[in-house]
Amino acid sequence: MSKENVELVRAAIDAVNTNDRxxxxxxxxxxxEYDVSRAVGPWRGVYSLxxxxxxxxxxxxxxxxxxxxxxxxxxxxxxxxxxxxNYLRGRDGxxxxxxxxxxxxxxxxxxxxxxxxxERQDALAAVGLSE
Length: 131
Hints:
The chain is α+β, with helices and mostly antiparallel strands. The chain is built from four helices and seven strands, in the order ααββαβββββα. A hairpin with a 2-residue loop joins strand 4 (74-76) and strand 5.
């Protein structure tokens, strides 16, 4: 099942990068949670699927453009850890890169939870792995 989990995560990242919200909703489980409680910034908290479009709009509106690139896909059971680089461009053209990690929980072929970690090692520790 892990190959399918990785493919689902790849498709979700592609949907984020192409702003395909309908595809993302189709990939999400009914009780989906987006946990950014560990983030630094204004979008801290745990959000339901119904709240995600507002959070997405607020985040996207702060940038001229953004793109996520997974640096790797680390599979373990129902989880996929994706350390990533976020390429952001401000509305004034200033470019920024930020590195962090997502922990994806996949259940029954859907994304049940997406959890943000500032550090790769924290995401790995959450699933019982180490560097």
